[in-house]
Amino acid sequence: MNIGLISKRYAKALLESATENGCADRLYQEMRVLERTLKTTPELVKAMRNPTLGLNTKRLLLSSVHHNPSEIYLRFVDLVLKNRRESQLRNIALRFEEFYRASIGENAGVLITAVPAEKDVIDRIHSIFSKVMPGRLELETKVDESIGGGFIFDFDTYRLDASVRSQLNAIKNQLIAENNRRG
User: Fold this and answer.
1) pLDDT averaged over the chain?
2) Torsion, Cα of 12, 87, 157, 160 (10° steps)
């Protein structure tokens, strides 16, 4: 079965259930923590893919991601483990976050800068974004010194790259193309 379809179905059903039970906000926070933990902890991902680990051990590992996990989160974990979809956990969490934000009219973006972004820069991004897209923007900021300066703004499937690194690469490519034309 299509991996994207699996994560979409689980995430959609989970959001519907959480909304009906009035705990979508809390579950959103739990899914964010789960997704980031899976992203940054390769040992946990490896454990989830390990067929020799029992379901109880995997449940304990996934439960320990949170101090006091909600009942719906634990039921979700049980369902995923029962259906042997633990390798899809991060995809499901990402899709859940996406569906949740859409349900409350919120957008997510990532601003990457060479140095920590100042408040006025973040405020300008919010201002520009609000003119283009309806809803609130949840902006994550990251520092990546390798971009040399400027910024990269990722939103949905779009990327606005105004970094020094990309500008230098563009100049380099132009020079190479010009040199190749001259022969």
Assistant:
1) 90
2) 130
